[in-house]
RNA sequence: GGGCGCAUAGCUCAGUCGGUUAGAGCAUUUGCAUCACACGCAAAGGGUCGAGGGUUCGAGUCCUUCUGCGCCCACCA
């Protein structure tokens, strides 16, 4: 029957069982009104993604929760899918085409999109297949994609709904622009990084001064110095601003300077935004290239001069610098200014600069017409829900971070100038308006601060509709074209918890989902927005709990990333250690919300444990007599007489309770640790060893079998493949462990009394082993020992269970005696309630033995000293709780006794 | 500038409601081919719990200041 090899081989089992589960539809979820639903939507990986350790961690957590709940007889749904990842995917396909010397513009929009779809069909599910390697129990029949037809309908519907509500508008704004991807980005997509830059102090020559007073004051100076980190933007300056209260410049307000290089006259204006303490207190104002300057521009009706094209190359407004890249222009300008002695100084200056989250290119604040969502109204219920505890974060601290962001939420720029994505469902009537989208302001564009278009009833030639209208509702013209832009990828992702359901009844049953498991990086991108979307479009929260796990880093603390080249490939780990080993290791290393530092050798932990489970099971299976095992433990348990049997059952149920508590609180590492300790330190190290003495007994057979069988079940969520493989070898088990129920709690098996009886036996065995080791008694030789025990019940326990001691401590004969004469010349030891003596004859060095005993004596005395000081302290006696005082008193008594007994033994040695 | 996290054995980390003897894995040392497992068994050594101050009968745990490392947010010319 038994063909289990001595080493667990994951390669032979994992794919086999995954296929088995899949073929038997164990992953599929259905409405079952008799059961409570437990649902999770997967954080959809990008179709460009390849599995990394972050995914491995994320999906292992979800899979453990789902398998646990499945066994607890919930109806578990894990909704899988992928994200179209607009910019990322477009970049990948563009790069691929570039290798063939093709630009997307060469192909045109439709042909290019065909290419992207082709790419997706070929590579888009790579990561999904990798998730399967992990054992993920997703309901694959439900596989969704954010560009599915139904899903796209939902995206359009949401856009139209927000428009109708007046929450979407189009406007000219300074947005984050990536000159490489050539698209607008949201604030979240342009993370700031600290850079060591430079602060350039540039002289702007004053024009002939009209005001006589300022002429006198600035007699010696004929310029004003401005400080900037981006000198190239000076070409678009349309003013210099100073603080109205700044005495240094008060007289100059209203005067003009000649913008160097451009030789344009610009005004000196006063604006309280300017901080007199920074730089020189005078700021160059470039409304087209800085959000603050833009605001200043609005306040003072300044001209807006855009000097760059979409690629970050200077345009016609840049004069001689036209055609240069922005950084190239920076150098040229500094050179030219230096030549003209217009640079006062250059200082090193640390500042943060936005970077594109897709390609790391330095962001250019750029003026353009984009679509925005007014977020404040959406944020309101999302704030409430978290404040009320309707949605809970694990760990709690993210609540504050979430609320802080939500309460300061800014409008969301949702239009992207790329092709791959959901095209904006906005149509323009040429007859009603000239489409102005890409007429980036040239010289002297006046901007109106109310430049928002947000009402569908306005006659402005804008038609917002899910489908292309036949004709313009206003003028009936058929000359209609669609907005060129697509929506931010996250504008589709935020609908994920409900747009993934195609069936209303299913939505009703599974929504709100139970928990969202994700990483901290996307709290704002995704989690926060899903909460807003849930309330706005479903009227209900999208999930009850948010579990935020840590970031996976390498063992030096750096974030794992392809570009740093420090990734550990999960597939390689699976190949070398097995999927279960990966799961168990990574989960054990992750305490709630802490980052996780990985190195390859850490996966040995899980592999070794898997092998331990394998071998213990293998041993038990080899020794089982299956015909005797079909009993109900609940009934049978009452008649069990063996101490070890009672003890392991007590330990098992204690463990079960601990694991349930841990899992219910998302303390998955704690659950893993608990099961590890129980299995290895209790079940294997002690119980299996004890059981070898009585393996033929029916009682031992039943307990070994039942405990193993139940333990495998609680292990299954953590080690699914391994437990399934063992289960298939376990006589009498039958079926698949995956769909077996979670063990029922049987509190009556838990017994403190049994635990403490066993404690004595285990302590004695350990001490005897220690003594053997100290005195170099060879492993295969057996010693005798004499036990002196005053405590009657302890003596009884040891008398009844002496076989255990003989077997595990290598003892031939045990003599129970109170006669000290027997003890002379023996190596001795004192533990709680028991003195033991081992006659070792001549091997024993009396001086060494004395030293050994003295050491123990000193330690005990030291302890007693602290203890008795405390017990003499009146305040301690008065203020500490009674049970603590009582415990201390008992402990002191025991120590006193112990010391006495050690002293007796010492005198024995000396005599 | 604001906020958050971390600091415990050589390394990586646990540590519950504050309760007195601070745990594990790896590594180290010693012994063991033993009939489940050497990915193993048995034993041992290893700690001023980052520093100072405070609260308390009692602090790794609570408060406070500081140091070091990491992260997030902010219209840092």
UniProtKB/TrEMBL annotation:
Subcellular localization(s) per the UniProt record: Cytoplasm
Listed Gene3D superfamilies: HUPs, Isoleucyl-tRNA Synthetase, Domain 1, Valyl-tRNA synthetase, C-terminal domain, Valyl/Leucyl/Isoleucyl-tRNA synthetase, editing domain
Domain Valyl-tRNA synthetase tRNA-binding arm: 845-908
UniProt-recorded Gene Ontology molecular function terms: aminoacyl-tRNA deacylase activity; ATP binding; valine-tRNA ligase activity
Protein's GO biological process: valyl-tRNA aminoacylation
Reaction(s) catalysed by this chain's protein: tRNA(Val) + L-valine + ATP = L-valyl-tRNA(Val) + AMP + diphosphate
Binding site for ATP: 562
GO cellular component: cytosol
Motif ('KMSKS' region): 559-563
Aminoacyl-tRNA synthetase class Ia domain boundaries: 16-598
EC number(s) per entry: 6.1.1.9
Coiled-coil annotated residue ranges, if any: 843-905
Motif ('HIGH' region): 45-55
Superkingdom of the organism of origin: Bacteria
Keyword Protein biosynthesis part of the UniProt annotation: yes
Residues in Methionyl/Valyl/Leucyl/Isoleucyl-tRNA synthetase anticodon-binding domain copies: 645-782
Function: Catalyzes the attachment of valine to tRNA(Val). As ValRS can inadvertently accommodate and process structurally similar amino acids such as threonine, to avoid such errors, it has a 'posttransfer' editing activity that hydrolyzes mischarged Thr-tRNA(Val) in a tRNA-dependent manner.
Oligomer status and interactors: Monomer.
Domain note: ValRS has two distinct active sites: one for aminoacylation and one for editing. The misactivated threonine is translocated from the active site to the editing site.
Family to which this protein belongs: Belongs to the class-I aminoacyl-tRNA synthetase family. ValS type 1 subfamily.
The protein's name in its UniProt record: Valine--tRNA ligase
Species annotation: Candidatus Ghiorseimicrobium undicola
Lineage summary: Bacteria, Pseudomonadati, Candidatus Omnitrophota, Candidatus Ghiorseimicrobium
Gene giving rise to this polypeptide: valS
